[in-house]
Amino acid sequence: MNKQKILIVFGTRPEAIKMAPVVKEFKKNPDVFETKVCVTAQHREMLDQVLDFFEITPDYDLDIMESNQNLSLLTSGILGGVNKVLEDFKPDFMYVQGDTTTSFAASLSAYYSGVKVCHVEAGLRTFDKWAPFPEEINRQLTGKLADYHFAPTQRAKDNLLVENVDVTTILVTGNTVIDALLYSAEKVDSKEQSEYRKLDSLIEQGKKLILVTGHRRENFGEGLNNICNALRRIAGEEDVQIIYPVHLNPNVQKPVYDLLGNIKNITLIEPLEYESFVWLMKRSYLMITDSGGIQEEAPSLGKPVLVTREKTERPEAIDAGTVVLVGTNEERIVQECLLLVNNEEQYKSMSLRHNPYGDGNAAGKIVEFQRGLV
Ligand code: UD1
Ligand code: UDP
């Protein structure tokens, strides 16, 4: 029997984290699959950190990142680059993940070439094309181009069914980020704490640690300024420390360093490699973020999350009670945060450990399904 030729394409930090378990699972079966990895490198440093940690060496690297890249030029660069890879490798199936411009543009290129598209983390929707921007449209278009849909939850599957996607092409798998998280958390637990000495030295003992991240385009400008102002006020509390690994996008770096540099109780640092970030999540009291992936990881760690977004395509975490949508309103962020810092009952009720995003076996289910496709 001929092997199935699988091309796995990703470009940014979260795609790499969420695709790493899928890459590893495919590579465990070299008798069935010929698997190659193509990175667009829509991100560079933040992607390379993940490739190093999961020991993935790409077969193709399009090296597309430029500073402050424009979405149209990024899209056309990916289309052209992926097209060359398709001509060289001639895969039967292409795997993409999530909602980035890499996922959408690579899927479009595959469709034009008659290569079947398999979409991991399919079916998430806000149904608002401006929130998150441009991710909502990226994932809707990727969904239209895809032949097979790996939905993390039943709700995501239901969204696809509403769009008349053939039910036999959808599989509910859980989210592969849980596979990645459990793998990393195990490494963290098995290592001596002294391995994290550098990071540990940043933490002020006896304070409640608030871990912050943020990068959404629709928050640039006023939204991000409001978030920073809220963080300054929260940092006024004596018993909290905020640690904020700042995303490398210049539209994030500048305002965050301008508004939050040199403030007591706020520590700004470079983005952390995944293992260290998992270690820090485990050490934190709560998180404030607009990240999709962190909302999915937090319930496994029993950490409450305040989500600085107006809309979410991840309502399961809200239902599970570990996430509150606080938007970008300064007053609301401060209030909700201080409620958790000062009210133990409220904190306990949010730090539940039920994770609606799966049990860490999503990649195995995906590869099993792929075996059945001939
Ligand atoms: C991208 C994705 C977003 C995803 C996020 C995860 C799109 C349009 N956006 O947003 O969906 O949630 O990644 O982080 O697909 N930069 C670096 N080094 C890096 C990474 C970024 O310098 O390793 C800087 C560059 O100047 C780059 C800029 O950040 O041009 C923006 O990167 P881009 O991928 O366009 O957008 P993100 O905001 O990172
Ligand atoms: N993360 C990381 N280092 C950091 C910040 C985040 O490894 O300094 C991880 C985090 O645990 C999650 C992912 O990166 O798995 C989220 O990426 P990001 O917030 O960039 O994108 P999103 O999830 O919003 O698409």
- Output the helix-strand order: EHEHEHEHEHEHEHHEHEHEHEHEHEHHH
Helix content: 40-55%
Dominant shape: globular
Hetero compounds? uridine-diphosphate-N-acetylglucosamine, uridine-5'-diphosphate
The fraction of residues in strands falls at 15-25%
Query: Mean pLDDT score, rounded?
Result: 96
Strand sequence of the main sheet, in spatial order? 3-2-1-4-5-6-7
Number of helices: 16
Radius of gyration: 20 Å
Counting helices, strands and paired strands, the structural category is: alpha/beta
How would a crystallographer describe the biggest sheet?
7 strands, parallel
Poorly predicted ranges = none
Note the gap between the termini: 10 Å
Quaternary structure of the protein: single chain
Question: How many strands appear in the DSSP assignment?
Answer: 13
General description of the model:
By secondary structure, the chain is α/β, with parallel strands linked by helices. Helices cover 47% and strands 16% of the residues. It has 16 helices and 13 strands. The protein has helices at 13-27, 45-54, 71-89, 101-112, 135-145, 154-162, 176-190, 197-200, 222-234, 250-260, 274-283, 292-301, 315-320, 330-342, 344-350, 362-371, and strands at residues 4-10, 33-39, 60-61, 93-97, 116-120, 148-151, 170-172, 208-212, 240-245, 266-269, 286-289, 305-307, 323-325. α1 links the parallel β1 (4-10) and β2 (33-39). The longest helix has 19 residues, at 71-89. The mean pLDDT is 96. It binds uridine-diphosphate-N-acetylglucosamine and uridine-5'-diphosphate. The site of uridine-5'-diphosphate has 16 residues, from α1, α11 and α12. Uridine-5'-diphosphate binds next to α1, α11 and α12.
